[in-house]
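Listing S7. Sequence submitted for prediction.
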Amino acid sequence: MQSEPLLIAGTGAMACLFGARLAPHTDVTLLGSWPEGLAALGREGIRLESDGTSQTVRVRVTSAPSDCRGARLVLVLVKSWQTERTAAQLAGCMAKDGVALTLQNGLGNLEHLQAALGNERAALGVTTVGATLLGPAHVRLGGIGPTYLAQHPRLEPLVDLLQGAGFEVRLAEDLESLVWGKLAVNAALNPLTALQGMENGGVIDHPSARSVAKAAAHEVAAVATARGTRMPYADAGEEALSVAGRTAGNRSSMYQDVLRGAPTEVEAISGAVVREGERYGVPTPVNWTLWQMVRVLAARRKEAGR
């Protein structure tokens, strides 16, 4: 039986990783707007580095949503600041009985998809798989781990497809807990590594960096508790440091964005923590400071033309 074709929204590290792993099992199309990424994908396909080996996988690629009409299975892997625009594009091309699954960082992505597509066509997931973009359409596997999905009546074909491609998929009863768990790790590592220009392992190499990372993660946990969300582990700070150790050689997605002069996801990570903290009366000074410092860094790089 032929697998349902898959549309992946995005052309960055995660989109390329999932595209390369899934393309041998179904027809995969990447929908994006990054000119260099689109050109490289069309010219050479996706080059995936993993376990000391390199392979190239051909996929379809387009910048036109009209080329994707009738899509029933969609993975949303764009940056969080692109989600609202992407959701509007998908609203014009997805099948009425389709489903778009977000595996993105930060808060607010599902809500953008639901607003544009309706609840029945939007689904939430959390992945612990990592990827580093080495260049346009060139990605290195950064770490293997489970991908957790919320219960959704339309996800079964996508679950089958992911499992067939070797992804470990788990259905989670309390996915909100996992979303906030991942948010704590991202808030601890991503801004700090971007600001200091270091790989994840640098956080555990420096006592001051460890302290900042733990404090940022603990603030996220405090906000989650105030809003009634259970964290998936006892100590958010220790979990963040554990992730940094397991992914020591990886560059966080925010650090990668800064290196290539792209907008970061700091608004959906640090900024989201601050806004939720204000809503529930929880102070978040460390996340506020990291948020503002990344904004300054991005502005300075933009002014310098980098």
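Caption to Listing S7: primary sequence and predicted structure tokens for the chain studied. The mean pLDDT is 94. The domain at 6-172 is CATH 3.40.50.720 (Rossmann fold).
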